[in-house]
UniProtKB/TrEMBL annotation:
Residues 1-23 are annotated as: Disordered. Residues 7-21 have a biased composition (Low complexity). Transmembrane segments: none annotated. GO terms for cellular component: nucleus. It holds the Pfam family rRNA_processing. It comes from Cotesia glomerata (Lepidopteran parasitic wasp). It comes from the Eukaryota. InterPro entries: Fyv7/TAP26. This is Thyroid transcription factor 1-associated protein 26.
Amino acid sequence: MGRFPKKSQNSDDSSASGSNKIVELDKKKYRQAKYSNNYKVDKWVSKRKNALLHELKNEAHVSKKFIKSIASRDTRGNKNLDKIREKQENLQKERAAKKEEFILKAQEREEAIKKSKQRRFETFKKLSKRTKKGQPVMKDRIEMLLQKIQASAN
């Protein structure tokens, strides 16, 4: 089964028409699609991105239609239209401010994580030092204890 390429299903019809098409099975792509978690995750991410883009386009389209429909119904002039535009602009400004705030928080969080990883790495380096005989080096351990005591005293 795996050694020979697959033939098309309608072999009787294809021989009658004169075109014998052989469809090759790409095992590598098949196995990747079936078993690879990274492939499935990438596929999910791309679908999610497409869905979000579609939602954004749809939302923008709906808001434009909303403004146009209200503008066509307006009989008192441009006052209502101006109010609606101001509301839309305020909403967009609030959304932009929320996005910026979220980005800043994410950056601060990443910086804090990097600092803590660096600190843990340094303590690991100090605590993992050994003598020639395999005993832990006490000098670094005592220095760390001294630093902890000084930090708690302050």
